[in-house]
Design goal:
The complex is a heterodimer of chains A (450) and B (184). By secondary structure, chain A is an alpha/beta fold. Chain A contains 24 helices and 10 strands. The radius of gyration of chain B is 21 Å and the shape is globular. The chains are: A alpha/beta (450), B alpha/beta (184). At the A-B interface, helix 2, helix 3, helix 4, helix 8 and helix 10 of A face helix 1, helix 4, helix 5, strand 8 and strand 9 of B.
Chain lengths: 450, 184
C-alpha cells in the first residue's frame, strides 16, 4: 500500500469512530439539506436545468482550445493580462514574481480552492509577502493552520465552541462568543488589511469567453473588496472554468448557489473584467490529462458546488481532512487520480459504496460513481492493486463462475464463521461493529423451501 | 515552446476525439412563471432582507458621510468612499424573480461604492424591473453590446455569512444593510 493510501486509511479509521465529529457534521449537513430542499422547490424543472448545464459544459470542454483563445483575446482587448501555467509551481511562481515586480508586501485573498491546489500561501510567505484569507471559514482555517475541510464550507468540522476557543487563543476574546460576535471580530480585523493590501487574489467560479470576464460568487462581500481595493487583482483560473457566454450565468449561478448552500443566488454574483491591474493565470496542472481521456472528460464539467460531498455517506463518516487532497469527497476521488497520478491516488475511488447519491445530486449531471468504477478499472489495468487483492478476486471470479463452487464457498464461509475462524480475518470490520451471526442456511436453500 | 503553446497543443490533441454528447434536454421552462413583476421583486427583495425606502430625506438624515456615484443623487454627498457611512449608486436593472439589483461600474473607485460602506442605497425606477437573469443580461447587451463595464455585480440582499455551524449572520465584509429607493 502506498503512503497516501496508508495515510487515508489511518485518518479515516480515526475519524469514523469520532462521535463528536459525526455529530457536528450531521448538524451542518442537516441544515444544508433542509436549505437545498427549499432551493430546489424554486425550480419548475430541475432535471432540464441540469441537463442544459451539462450540454453547455460539454460544448465548452470539447472545444476548449477555441474558448481559451477567445477568452484570452477578450481579456487582452480590455487591457488585462493573461499568463499560462502548466504546473502548480509555475502558477505560484508567477504570482510571486508579479508580487515582486509591483513591490507587494501584503495580499488579501478571497476564497479559492485552486490557490490551495497550487500551495500559493506558503510560496508567497517564503517570498516575504503577508497573505490574509478573508473568507470567514478560510480565515478560521488560516488561524488554526489547517487546510479547508470542505470545498465550500471550510470549517464544517468545527462547532462554535472550538472556533470561539481559537479566537480566544489568538485575540483574547470570550470563549462564549456567539457566531455573530466571532464574525464581527474577523471582519474588524480584516477591514484594515483590505484597505492596506497591495494585491488581491481570487479564483473564479466561471470564466466567460465572450467578454474576457471572470465570475465570482460570494456571500460575505470579501470577494468584492479583494477585487476592488488593491491596485492589483490576480485571478487564478483552472482551464475547465470556461463557459462560452455571459448569457450562461442565468443557468449556472442559480445551480451553483442552490447546490452550494440552498440559496437561489449567493449575495454577490459578480462579473469582473480587465483593466491595467487585472491579471489572469490560466492553470493546467493535470487538467489536460483528464481532458485527453474522452471516456472521463465530463469530470471536467464539475462546477465545485460541493453537493456530492454533502450527499456522500463516506465523506460524512471519514471527514474531509482524511482524503489528503485539495478536493475532497466523491469529486476529489474522481479527479485526483487523473490530476496527480493513478498509482498514488486510486485508493480514493474505493472509498465509495457506489450508491450513486453523488451523481443524483450533481447539478451538471456527472455520473460520478461510474467514474469511480472506471478509476478502479484503470488502477487494476496499471497493476496498482496489491498481489493479495489480485489473488482474492481471481478466486472470487473462479467461484462465481460455477453454481457448485459458489455453494461450496458459502458453506465453507458459514462453517468458518460458526467455528469463530472469521473473527481474526474480519478485525478491520469488528473494531467498531459486531460481526453478524452466520445465516443458518444458504439463500438458495431457503428459497427452494418456500 | 511557451507554457501557453504547450497547454493549447495538449488541449487541441485531447479534443480531437469528442466525448459522447449528453442527451438533448427537454424544451420545458426551468422556472415557474412570475406574475406581477413589481410585487414579486418587492417580495423577494424583502425576503433577502433588503429595505425599500419610503421617505428619502428621512433615510438620508441618518447618515453623516455619504458617497455617491453622482448619477441620480448628485449633490447629496461627496464623502470619500473609504470614510463613507452610506454608499449611493444607480443600477442597471432589478430582477423580479430573484430580488436582485444589478450594479455596474467602470472605475476602481466606483467598485468600492457598493461594497465598502456599511450601508448601500440603490436608486432605481419602477420601469427598471425585469423578469429574470436572462432579461437582466439582455439589458446589459442592449446597452453595452460587447463592451460590458469592468464590474457587473448582481447583488441579492446585504452581505452575510453562515460559515460557523451554518448559523446565518447578517453583515460580513460587505454592507450590513441594502436599501432601495424608487425615484419614480
Amino acid at each position: 500500500m502506498n503512503a497516501n493510501a496508508l495515510q487515508f486509511q489511518r485518518a479515516a479509521d480515526a475519524k469514523a469512530f469520532d462521535l463528536r465529529h459525526r455529530a457536528i457534521v450531521a448538524k451542518n449537513t442537516g441544515t444544508y439539506h433542509a436549505a437545498v430542499a427549499r432551493g430546489l422547490a424554486r425550480f419548475a424543472d430541475w432535471e432540464t436545468a441540469r441537463r442544459r448545464a451539462a450540454q453547455v459544459k460539454w460544448e465548452t470542454i470539447n472545444h476548449l482550445d477555441r474558448y481559451l483563445e477567445e477568452f484570452e483575446r477578450n481579456v487582452l482587448a480590455r487591457g488585462g493580462h493573461v499568463h499560462w501555467a502548466e504546473t502548480a509551481t509555475e502558477a505560484s511562481q508567477l504570482v510571486v514574481s508579479l508580487a515582486h515586480q509591483h513591490g507587494v508586501r501584503k495580499v488579501v485573498k478571497s476564497k479559492s480552492m485552486v490557490t490551495e491546489e497550487i500551495h500559493l500561501n506558503p510560496a508567497l510567505e517564503a517570498a516575504g509577502v503577508t497573505v490574509l484569507e478573508t473568507d470567514l471559514g478560510e480565515y478560521i482555517c488560516q488561524l488554526r493552520g489547517e487546510p479547508p475541510y470542505h470545498i465550500v464550507t471550510p470549517v464544517m468540522h468545527l462547532n462554535r465552541e472550538q472556533i470561539a476557543q481559537t479566537f480566544h487563543e489568538k485575540f483574547g476574546s470570550s470563549t462564549d462568543a456567539t457566531a455573530e460576535q466571532l464574525a464581527g471580530i474577523a471582519c474588524e480585523k480584516l477591514r484594515a488589511e483590505f484597505l492596506s493590501a497591495d494585491m488581491g487574489i481570487s479564483g473564479a467560479n466561471f470564466a466567460f469567453a465572450d467578454t474576457g470576464m471572470i465570475g465570482l460568487c460570494t456571500n460575505e462581500g470579501n470577494g468584492r473588496l479583494t477585487t476592488a481595493l488593491p491596485k492589483l487583482h490576480v485571478a487564478i483560473v483552472g482551464i475547465e472554468k470556461l463557459v462560452p457566454r455571459i448569457e450562461d450565468l442565468a443557468l449556472f449561478w442559480p445551480l451553483l448557489a442552490t447546490h452550494g448552500t440552498g440559496q437561489f443566488l449567493t449575495v454577490y454574483n459578480t462579473l469582473i473584467g480587465g483593466s491595467e491591474g487585472f491579471h489572469v493565470i490560466l492553470l493546467d496542472n493535470g487538467r489536460t490529462k483528464l481532458l485527453a481521456d474522452a471516456e472521463q472528460r465530463d469530470a471536467l464539467h464539475c462546477i465545485r458546488c460541493g453537493a456530492c460531498l454533502n450527499a456522500c455517506p463516506v465523506y460524512k463518516t471519514v471527514g474531509g481532512h482524511s482524503y489528503g487532497t485539495t478536493y475532497q469527497g466523491p469529486l476529489g476521488s474522481m479527479i485526483t487520480p487523473h490530476l496527480r497520478g493513478v498509482a498514488d491516488w486510486s485508493h480514493l475511488s474505493y472509498a465509495s459504496s457506489l450508491c450513486g447519491k453523488c451523481a443524483d445530486v450533481c447539478p451538471v449531471h456527472i455520473p460520478i460513481h461510474h467514474h469511480l468504477l472506471h478509476n478502479r478499472r484503470n488502477s487494476v489495468r496499471q497493476h496498482c492493486d496489491s498481489p493479495l487483492q489480485r489473488i482474492a478476486f481471481r478466486l472470487w471470479l473462479w467461484a462465481m463462475q460455477s453454481p457448485g463452487r459458489y455453494a461450496l464457498g458459502g458453506k465453507l464461509a458459514r462453517l468458518g464463521m460458526r467455528l469463530g475462524l472469521a473473527k481474526p480475518l474480519a478485525k478491520a470490520w469488528t473494531k467498531g461493529r459486531d460481526l453478524p451471526e452466520p445465516p443458518r442456511e444458504a439463500f438458495r436453500d431457503w428459497w427452494r423451501n418456500q | 515552446m511557451s507554457a501557453r503553446d504547450n497547454i493549447l497543443n495538449r488541449v487541441r490533441d485531447a479534443v480531437r476525439t469528442l466525448a459522447p454528447r449528453p442527451p438533448e434536454p427537454s424544451a420545458s421552462p426551468i422556472w415557474p412563471p412570475v406574475g406581477d413583476l413589481e410585487a414579486r421583486f418587492r417580495e423577494e427583495f424583502t425576503l433577502l432582507r433588503g429595505e425599500v425606502v419610503e421617505s428619502l430625506p428621512e433615510f438620508l438624515a441618518g447618515f453623516a458621510k455619504i458617497a455617491t456615484d453622482g448619477s441620480e443623487l448628485a449633490g447629496v454627498g461627496n464623502a470619500p468612499v473609504r470614510e463613507a457611512d452610506l454608499g449611493v449608486t444607480a443600477c442597471e436593472c432589478l430582477v423580479a424573480q430573484t430580488g436582485s439589483v444589478v450594479v455596474t461600474c467602470r472605475s476602481a473607485a466606483e467598485r468600492a461604492l457598493s461594497a465598502l460602506p456599511p450601508v448601500h442605497l440603490v436608486m432605481a425606477r419602477r420601469g427598471q424591473i425585469v423578469l429574470d437573469l436572462d432579461a437582466a443580461i439582455a439589458v446589459l447587451r442592449r446597452r453595452y453590446d460587447d463592451s460590458v463595464p469592468s464590474l457587473v455585480s448582481v447583488i441579492s440582499g446585504p452581505s452575510r455569512t453562515a460559515d460557523i455551524e451554518k448559523v446565518l449572520v447578517m453583515g460580513a465584509h460587505g454592507p450590513k444593510r441594502l436599501a432601495l429607493y424608487f425615484i419614480e
